[in-house]
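Please review this pair:
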Amino acid sequence: MDTEDFAADAALFARMRGMWAEVDPVPADLVDRMVAAVAVEDLSREYALLTLVESSLAAVRGDADTATLQFTNGSTSVLLHVTATEGDRRRVDGWVDAAALAIRLTQGDREWSAEAGEHGRFAFDDVTSGMARIRMVVRDADGELHDFQTPQFEV
C-alpha cells in the first residue's frame, strides 16, 4: 500500500466515525458507569462481606453479652466472637482460614495486635466498645501476600 491508499482509508474511517457519532453517539454517562462498575468489582475484592452468623448487630449494642460475625472476601474468611467483659470492655476471639502473618484490630487511633495460632485462632483482650475493623496480611495458597480488612463493625 502506498501513501495515497493510507490517506484514502483514513478519510473513509473519519467519515464512518462521524456517521456513527451522529447515528449512535456514545452515552454521556458511559465513562462514569464504567468507572463505577470497575470500582464495584474492586470493592468486592478489597472489602469483606459481613454476615451475621448469630444474633443481630443490635445485640452487640443492646443487652446481649455476645455476638458472632463472619467476614469473607471470597478467598479468606474470618469468624469473630465478641464478648462483653467488665467495665464496658470487650474480648474479641477470632479464627482465620488463611495463613495470617499480621493481625490488627483498629479503632480510630488505637490498635491491638495478635498472632494467629496453629489453627488460625487469635484474640484481642480489653477492647473498648465502639466501631472497629480487623486488618491482616495473609498468605494465599500460591504463597503471595494479600491485605485483608473487614468493614467497620461495632464491638
Remarks:
- The chain is about 30% helix and 45% strand.
- The longest strand covers residues 99-107.
- Residues 3-23 form the longest helix (21 residues).
